[in-house]
Amino acid sequence: MTDKSTLIASSKRARVELPMPFGWFQVLYSQELAIGQSLPLEYFDQELVIFRTESGVVKVLDAYCAHMGAHLGYGIRDQAGGGSRVVGESIVCPFHGWQFNGDGECTSIPYAKNLPPRVARCEKLIPSWHVREANQCIYVWYHPEGLDPLFDPIEIDEAGLDNADWGELQIHEWDIDTHMQEIGENAVDAAHFCFVHGTPEIPEPAEIRFEDHRRHGVFVSKMDTPRGTVEGRIENSSVGPGLSVVRFSGICDTVLMANITPISGIRSRAKYAFIQRRDGAKTSRVAQAIIDDIRQQMEEDKIIWARKRYLEKPMLCDGDGPFAKFRRWYSQFLIEGCDNDRG
């Protein structure tokens, strides 16, 4: 006979059973990593270390030193409370001072008279990760089979540091107990806006496209404002499963970089960065109200996401969005049977 605790554990494990998707994912904002700084990261069910070299280039490695297994993301002595020391283009292991560059090659053993053969041959000793820095964000490519990037992140003009027409990033973050696909499906779920977020009507999808690794959708909805009824427009574009940009227009032009990264298969981190047009005609109160409303929607969605069960064959009606099309598109990023360990 199966005991009650086993049944409960089985039920919890079965709430979402999907493999971790591959793609580009945001791990930090550029402003969070200074020159010569390193930090530990926990994403993709793995321990990583990120560092910015003295030349300003961002590198990511698996976290553990190939010498004796120390974690490279935690410093000691004058580095205590932060990451390990960075010297030139290499990170320094806090345990014995071995240095590794961004390709995972050992560049120095300060006390060795005879280098180990693999070090002497300049072999890669620690797995390295593909990194891109754009849009004031740092992205890492994850693939469970270790394949090189199959597509690239897009440049978001409004997020450029030299774009004087748009303001600074306003950053918010949530950790959510669910698989990323459950979060992504909101992009095609118009009906939930009315019932979860209390909008006066269900937004009308004006356009929805799925093309290779990209997805694009447009919703229009009437919004009541002190100036009367205004037609609002929400344009949502994704590159892969992890990177999305949402453009809101109608009241105060707002761009949202809504990026989701898997911490594990059943826990995701949402990094939301709002950018708003610098426009003296728009009051700061209206601009902030838009951000506050979207943040409130996220808090409401979290209640659903963290407790719902993923249904492989949901019972859909004619008023539901194109869930089947979304899932077919999303499935290209899921590799069944992978254990999400790059080895």
What are the SSEs and their pairings?
Blueprint: H1 4-13, E1 23-29, E2 38-43, E3 46-52, E4 58-62, E5 86-87, E6 90-92, E7 99-101, E8 106-108, H2 117-120, E9 128-129, E10 131-134, E11 137-142, E12 170-176, H3 180-184, H4 191-197, E13 204-211, E14 214-225, E15 228-239, E16 243-249, E17 254-264, E18 267-276, H5 284-305, H6 323-331
Antiparallel strand pairs: 1-11, 2-3, 3-4, 4-9, 5-6, 6-7, 7-8, 10-11, 12-18, 13-14, 14-15, 15-16, 16-17, 17-18
Question: What are the key terms here?
Answer:
alpha+beta; 343 residues; globular; Naphthalene 1,2-dioxygenase Alpha Subunit, Chain A, domain 1; 2 domains; 4-stranded antiparallel beta sheet; Rieske Iron-sulfur Protein; 7-stranded antiparallel beta sheet
Radius of gyration, CA atoms, in whole angstroms: 23 Å
Q: Runs with pLDDT <50, length 5+?
A: 6-12
Helix content: 10-25%
Distance between the termini: 38 Å
Per CATH, what is the topology of the largest domain? Naphthalene 1,2-dioxygenase Alpha Subunit, Chain A, domain 1
Count of alpha and pi helical runs: 6
Strand content: 25-35%
Number of strands: 18
| Gross geometry | globular
Strand order of the largest sheet: 12-18-17-16-15-14-13
Number of domains: 2
CATH class type of the largest domain: Alpha Beta
Q: What is the level-2 CATH architecture name of the largest domain? A: Alpha-Beta Complex
Keywords: Membrane, Oxidoreductase, Transmembrane, Transmembrane helix
Protein name: cholesterol 7-desaturase
Pfam family, one: Rieske
EC number: 1.14.19.21
